[in-house]
């Protein structure tokens, strides 16, 4: 490989650049990114940056030592692939960029609501700074979506003295991410923080000065000075349409992050993979051998660690990513952490009383620990993560006792 291009300058992009160099790649290297900023960390945007405790989250990278051409403020618009393994050309606002190795790391973009009213999303540092300036005392802030981002924005807005309403279509916060039973345990946090949580409410559109609600015969409306929309993201893969790469919800890859061109022979089987094209981070739907299905993980830990494997793959080395997903969120003064995947779990076990403030839940299949969610119990998280990674059995009775460490049976 002599000419590598990384498209997307988020965490996965910069980590891919670093990994290529640290693994000995000596050829030309270009990072193309739509944002004009050098790669920066996003988790603080809804936390310290919004709160005004930080203004710069730039990733500490030595770009000179990395010998990487930075094309910032430039967008990839298309991809033309030559024969398998022969590279191709990234079409971009900076012109055509030929490559023989490509890392796709274009991340994800927020979903927005219909309507002409002003709506804020929170994905970039510019958006965080803009929203921060509007979180003034007494401002009526209406947040659509009681997910991770919605809860974090509500936390900061309430602390700043805003009048905060959170509107959620499901019956509980976080229903999609952790299920309604566990999501319901977080609902009281909103009221405690003085936030008005309204569940089961569907929004039709964002209008001037507020929200129009759906299915409301009297033309229901919620007035707002600012509307923040946190209803999820979609992988930013529009520029790959027509390239021949297999796109589902994200770039479909094998367990080594090699992109499939056309239909995969069967799930996970490296049929028509491109050895010269890898995808990683929020835009990649990768095959997990651990879970026997494709995962699209929109979390920082994957963007941090998976590029090592993607870079090794591009350099022709054997490498497979098999980590259990990990995620954290800081909301309403609590540290919420999650590890594993509970999508196919048999049962939920509570560990500690939610009324006590510090608690956890675990998802089990037989005596296998599939996933854990902890609230202000970081030690549980660390212990459980180890058990999940090793795949060792647990004692389903003992794990319900918060005084007993999470450990192998
Ligand atoms: P991104 O960070 O999205 O970077 C992709 C880059 O590619 C962007 O700069 C984009 O502009 C660029 N790009 C897109 N399309 C093109 C194109 N066509 N051409 C060129 N460039 C393009 N995760 C956690 O685990 N815990 C948290 O607490 C947490 N908090 C978060 C808070 C916020 C506000 C946000 C937004 C995310 C948070 N995350 C959190 C998620 C985490 O930040 C992401 O998983 C991570 O940023 C993904 O990195 P990435 O490099 O894959 O994608």
Break the fold down into its secondary structure elements and pairings.
Blueprint lengths: L2 E5 L3 H12 L5 E6 L14 H4 L11 H4 L2 E4 L3 E6 L6 E5 L2 E5 L1 E4 L3 E3 L8 E2 L4 H10 L5 E5 L3 H12 L3 E6 L6 H4 L1 H5 L2 H6 L3 E4 L3 E5 L2 E4 L7 E3 L2 E4 L3 E3 L11 E2 L1 E4 L4 E3 L12 E7 L4 E5 L4 E3 L4 H15 L11 E6 L2 E7 L6 E5 L7 E7 L2 E8 L2 H13 L19
Parallel strand pairs: 1-2, 1-7, 2-3, 7-21, 9-16, 10-11, 10-16, 11-12, 19-22
Antiparallel strand pairs: 4-5, 5-6, 8-17, 13-14, 14-15, 18-19, 20-21, 22-23, 24-25, 25-28, 26-27, 27-28
Helix pairs in contact: 1-9
The protein binds flavin-adenine dinucleotide.
Uncertain ranges:
none
The description of the largest β-sheet is:
6 strands, mixed
Shape: globular
Helix content: 10-25%
Domain count? 3
Q: How many beta-strand runs?
A: 28
CATH fold group of the largest domain: FAD/NAD(P)-binding domain
Number of helices: 10
Q: What would you give as the CATH superfamily of the largest domain?
A: FAD/NAD(P)-binding domain
Distance between the amino and carboxyl termini: 48 Å
**Coarse structural class:** alpha/beta
What is the strand arrangement across the widest sheet?
Answer: 3-2-1-7-21-20
Report the bound ligands by name, code or SMILES: flavin-adenine dinucleotide
Q: In angstroms, what is the radius of gyration?
A: 22 Å
- The CATH architecture of the largest domain: 3-Layer(bba) Sandwich
**Could you name the CATH class of the largest domain?**
Alpha Beta
